[in-house]
Each structure stands twice: as C-alpha cells, then as structure tokens.
Specification:
There is one protein chain. With 340 residues, this protein is α/β, with parallel strands linked by helices. The chain has two domains: 137 residues, Nucleotidyltransferase, domain 5, CATH 3.30.420.40; 166 residues, ATPase, nucleotide binding domain (Nucleotidyltransferase, domain 5, 2-Layer Sandwich), CATH 3.30.420. Helices cover 42% and strands 19% of the residues. The strands form two sheets. It has a five-stranded mixed beta sheet with strand order 3-2-1-4-5, with helices on both faces. A five-stranded mixed beta sheet has the order 8-7-6-9-10, sandwiched between helices. Strand 6 and strand 7 form a beta hairpin. The longest helix has 32 residues. The protein is globular. It starts with a strand and ends in an 18-residue tail after the last helix. It binds 5'-O-[(R)-(carboxyoxy)(hydroxy)phosphoryl]adenosine (KG4) and zinc ion (ZN). 5'-O-[(R)-(carboxyoxy)(hydroxy)phosphoryl]adenosine binds next to helix 4 and helix 5. The site of zinc ion (ZN) has 6 residues, from helix 3.
Length: 340
Amino acid sequence: MHTYILGIESSCDDTSAAVLQNNFLLSNEIASQKVHERFGGVVPELASRAHQQNIIPVVEAAISHANIDKKQLSAVAFTRGPGLPGSLMVGVSFAKAFAWALGIPLIDVDHMHAHIMANFLRVPGETRSMPEFPFLCLIVSGGHTQIAIVRNPLEREIIGNTIDDAAGETFDKAAKIMSLPYPGGPVIDKLAQSGNPSAFRFAKPRIADLNFSFSGLKTSILYFLRDELKKDEQFIEKNTADLCASIQKTIIDILVDKTEKAVNGTGIRTLALAGGVSANSVLRAAMRQLADKHKLDLHIPKLSYTTDNAAMIAMAGYFRYQKGLFAGLDAAPYATGVKV
Ligand code: KG4
Ligand code: ZN
C-alpha cells in the first residue's frame, strides 16, 4: 500500500500544495503572490489575504495533478514555522480542518528543516542519488543563513548562523537600494551575468567561527552608492550589471568561505545546499568548485525546489510519518525558529 502525503506551505508569500507518493513527488503547485512587487518586499497583511484566496484552488490542483482522490491521502503535512504569523495561520488552519475532515493524521514541519529535505525529492522514475548522513548543509534563504550538520532525516545541528541579516535579505535589500524589483536575488543573478564581479570591492565581515554577518555589507553598499550618486546621479543606471556582479560575488564569497571552513573543521565529505538563494547560478557554480577541490559528494536541489514550495514540506512530512510523529489538532504556528 502506498503512503500519500499532502504538503501545505504558506510561511511567506508563496501558497503551495504538493502530493508525495511514498518518497516520490506526484505534484507541486505554487501560487506566487505578485501583489508585493510594487512595495519592494512582502506586506504581511496582503500575504495572509492572498493565502486565503489561493489555498483551496492550489490544494485542489495538487490533488488533481497527482491523479489521486483525496480519500487516498494518508496524512497532511504543514509548515508550522518559522514564518509570518498571519500567513502560517492560513496553512495551519486549512491543514487541521482538512486532516480532521478526512480523519487522517496531521504532521507539523519546520520550514528550514524542509528546505534541507528538498535534497531528497525525486519524481517517479528519477534515480538521482540522495545525500548520505551525516552531511553538511548550507541553508540560505530570505530569512536564514545557516550551516548545519544533518544527522538523520529528523535532526540537524546548527553549527553556524547569521548574527544579523540573511543572505537572501542582503540580495533583496541591495536590489531595493538600486531600485530593482522584489525579490532582488533572481534579478541580481540575471543582471550580474553581463557584469564584472571585480569592478567594485565591498569589505567582507570578520566574524568568528562559522557565523555570518551581512548588515555591514548592506551598509557599505548603501554608503558607497550614496557617495557615487553625489558625483553622478546616473551612477547606478550606468553600472547596474557591474554593481550586481560585484555585490553578488561578495555575498557568495562569504558563503563559500564559511562552508569551506565547516568542511575542514568537521571532516564531513557530503555537502548539500538548500533555500531560495541556492537558486543562484554563481553560488551553485562556486559550490561545485569547492566540491571538486575537496572531493566532496555535493547535492544541490533542482531549481524548482530551492525557493519556497510544498514538495519539501511533504518530503519532511513523509520522514516524520514513518516515525509516527504526528501533531495534535491544537498545534499553533511559531513565528521564529525552533531547534528540531
Ligand atoms: O527560501 P525562500 O524562497 O524563502 C524563505 O524561506 O525566505 O528564499 C527567498 C530568498 C529571497 O531573498 C530571494 O531574493 C532569494 O531567495 N533568491 C535568490 C535567487 N532566487 C531566489 N537569491 C539569489 N539568487 C537567486 N537566483
Ligand atoms: Zn523558505
């Protein structure tokens, strides 16, 4: 008998639902919210409202594209946190009502843990190898920048963390300073392709251990542009590609340096990437180089599983299902991170 997990993700500005058959992905629907673009960032109130509008059509599409009947579902896995409370509330409430109505278990999933589990996603017939435990994972998203030792499908130990901003947030803020659209990461990635990464230099932070800091970089970008704009008010327009390439290179260098330090410090030979920033073309290439240099077994999720999606929630949920780790109907969202 197959196990079918319905995954629900609503932590930020993507409403997503996915169906997994055992550990194979049958469907992954994502409704991204365009409403935030003109504000240059996610507006929580608008996000919750859009989740309310999207959640039922997205779940219906996921079930119908999986070609199953909802009565076949074994459990409903949902993102419990971290994320925007109002956004999480929509997914959590929907998941509870749906599981309760079907009389099936409810599984709570940590969003950051699920990003890591995206490395285990396969569609039917796909034979790509999976990371072996324990492995190191660089988790880079809009709200988090962490290095973790992943010991098994349920546990991770965070050995490095940002002390201020996240890498994705730095991409987004740099884009905002340059009046580029939100989210800034993919825009900078694209514009940087025709730029010179050595055109401008930005100072890198000196932070001990495996921790990260990005707030100083953000400030130095802001001051640098403010000074240059005083001399030439078209400085940004004239140098957009070079600025994007140089800012991107600084962020990626910081990430790669710490990852290399973690590889050397732990001796772990399997490395994975996770989170929205792992969609970045230069980061993916830099990680491949790092893996070649140290002869590491490298795992990078498919592009569609890097940014927020419910497939990864269903995957993390499947591992919890196998251990009978279910949530009660009183489960409530948490806004900030918890250790799992
Ligand atoms: O994981 P994610 O979808 O949401 C969170 O959990 O935060 O990550 C979103 C972040 C945003 O900051 C976005 O700018 C960044 O991922 N991002 C990228 C790229 N695609 C998305 N950053 C750099 N390069 C990209 N290609
Ligand atoms: Zn995320």
